[in-house]
Design goal:
single chain; mainly beta; 1 helix
């Protein structure tokens, strides 16, 4: 009975080993990413409810014989602060263009970290119905978790800390906010998993 169990499990173990090897490498190819964010602006008065979104274009480089990938990317995003509060004083919109890097692991589940530097345009509401625009350097850093739904398409979640430094004419002199939301990524040219064939094992009873 024990021998029967051991012989029967050999094909299963072989299948798992070959499958692991066949999906081990992170494949290279262009990336198009769409972000859908909720967030909260951090300021001296506390926090608020914010919404936004973004677009990322990049290229994923896989390291041979490794799950690790490196992904330079360019992007742009928009954020609306204090949604539903038309009388708020402070930053009410942000538009950012940036460039950065994402590092992660390939596979069905893909954890990653990322960071970007760029230029931000902030809209400041003074409470009188008018807005003043400010331009300053922008940065973000965050982490995400993507899931490969089908080859070439990933769906995931991410959280990030964002900041835009602006002239000290306002208080505070930097806009800061947290974002958390969903992202959809199209990995163009990602090959489909290679089929794996396992030779059945037969044995003769004596």
């Amino acid at each position: 009975m024990r021998r029967s169990f051991l012989v029967g499990i050999v094909p299963v173990l072989a299948f798992a080993a070959v499958s692991f090897a066949s999906t081990r490498e992170a494949h290279a190819g262009p990336i198009i990413g769409l972000d859908f964010d909720l967030g909260t602006a951090l300021n001296s008065q506390g926090s608020d409810f914010s919404t936004g979104g973004g677009l990322r274009l990049g290229y994923r480089f896989g390291f041979p014989g490794s799950w690790l990938y490196l992904q330079p990317e360019l992007g742009g995003k928009f954020m609306a602060f204090g949604v539903g509060d038309s009388n708020a004083i402070g930053y009410d919109h942000a538009g950012i263009v940036n460039a950065g890097l994402k590092i992660g692991l390939a596979g069905i589940v893909q954890p990653n970290i990322f960071g970007h530097l760029g230029l931000g345009i902030m809209s400041y509401a003074d409470g009188s119905g008018g807005d003043t625009g400010y331009i300053g350097p922008a940065a973000d850093v965050g982490a995400g978790l993507d899931f490969r739904i089908v080859p070439g398409f990933l769906l995931g979640a991410q959280v990030a800390y964002n900041s835009v430094a602006v002239p000290a004419a306002n208080s505070p002199d930097a806009a800061k906010w947290l974002t958390f939301g969903l992202n959809a990524t199209f990995h163009i040219g990602e090959p489909r998993p290679r089929p794996v064939y396992v030779q059945p094992v037969y044995y003769r009873r004596y």
